[in-house]
Amino acid sequence: MNGFKVKKIQSLTLGEKMRRARSEKRIGLPEIAKNTKIQLEYLEYLESGNYNGLPADVYVRGFLKSFADYLGINEEYLIKSFNKEKSIQQNIAGNNNIKEKKKANNINLSRISVTPKIISIFFISLFFIMLSFYLFKNLNNFVSNPELLIMNPAADSVINDTKVLVKGKTDVGNDLFINNQQVLVDDEGIFSENIILREGKNVIMVKSINQFNKEVTESISIEAHYSNPEEVKPPEVVNSQDAPPTEENNQDSNSTQGVQQVEEVKADEIKEAEGAVLGAETIQKSEADNKDKKKKKD
Fold it and tell me: How far apart are alpha carbons 41 and 60 in whole angstroms?
């Protein structure tokens, strides 16, 4: 032995400091709660170190300040103790949560043993699952009729052309016929084909047959209107004599008739003038003859 003595240094907890301060003042918790307006249970939680039952830290520091002021002690002395102990409790709780998660995530692989029997059971179960899925899918196709949707043209439509594009969708792998002529179906079940139309009403029959010989038929009525282009006829030569009178001909005829009427009026006036002259000469001649006859008688 070297003569040294080991002395344990014990630090008081927050609860112990609060109890010691109360004991020195000989004041109980109910009296402190009444005078500081702090709930009694919060004071009990602080002294017992049960910090989980306390409200937010900012309120707890207010409780400690009121407690210290009432007992006349240093508030920082209590608040530092609270912060230190609260941090220690949080660290301990966090480590415990991590350990519990690791325990929950750890799998004891030593208890699992893979045997040929287990492998056989796994593959047999997988085979039956796949077989059930295949049978369910094909049973649906066997019971129900094939899908057939006509997207173009619309029923009872009128088309001014000699042909029309028939487009639609059916189940992949089905045989598709339009007017008893097979048409190709792509990987998505889409089909399209140009159909020649005749003048008037046309009925287009679309039929889809699946691998179980289930079939569905859709009919489309279309009215087609079109005509052959007419031959261009040469213009007919019209005889001018046989041609009906036009407006210009009528104008020319009217003007000609007017000129003729003017000329006829002028001719009549000339004749009248000539007649007047001849009449005057005849009168003068007859008067001269009468004078001559009188002279002869005398």
Answer: 12
Q: Which amino acid is at 161?
A: D
**Integer Cα distance of 167 and 270 in angstroms:** 95
Structure tokens that stand for 142 in this block: 């066997």
Whole-number pLDDT of residue 193: 93
The model's pLDDT over 15-71, given as tens digits with 9 standing for 90+, comes to: 888 888 888 889 888 998 898 899 999 888 888 888 888 888 889 889 889 988 888
- Beta-sheet strand order (sheet of 190-196): 148-152, 163-170, 190-196
Give the number of residues written for the chain.
298
Alpha helix ranges (H) inside the chain? 14-25, 29-36, 40-48, 57-71, 75-105, 116-143, 247-297
Residue 178 host element (H or E)? strand 175-178
CA–CA gap between residue 4 and residue 169 (Å, rounded): 100
* pLDDT for position 260: 65
Q: Tell me the C-alpha distance between 295 and 298, whole Å.
A: 5
CB 209 within 8 A of CB 174: yes
Ordered domains of the chain (ranges, CATH): 14-101 (1.10.260.40), 148-224 (2.60.40.10)
Find where tokens 């679309």 sit: 206
How does DSSP classify residue 153?
S
Burial 14-25 (b: 16+ CB within 10 A, else e): bbebbeebbeee
Q: What is the pLDDT of residue 239?
A: 53
- The pLDDT of residue 201 is above 70: yes
SS3 state of residue 209: strand
Whether pTM exceeds 0.70: no
Helix (H, G, I), strand (E, B) or coil at 279: helix
Nearest Cα to Cα of residue 165 among 226, 220, 208: 220
3-state secondary structure of 283: helix
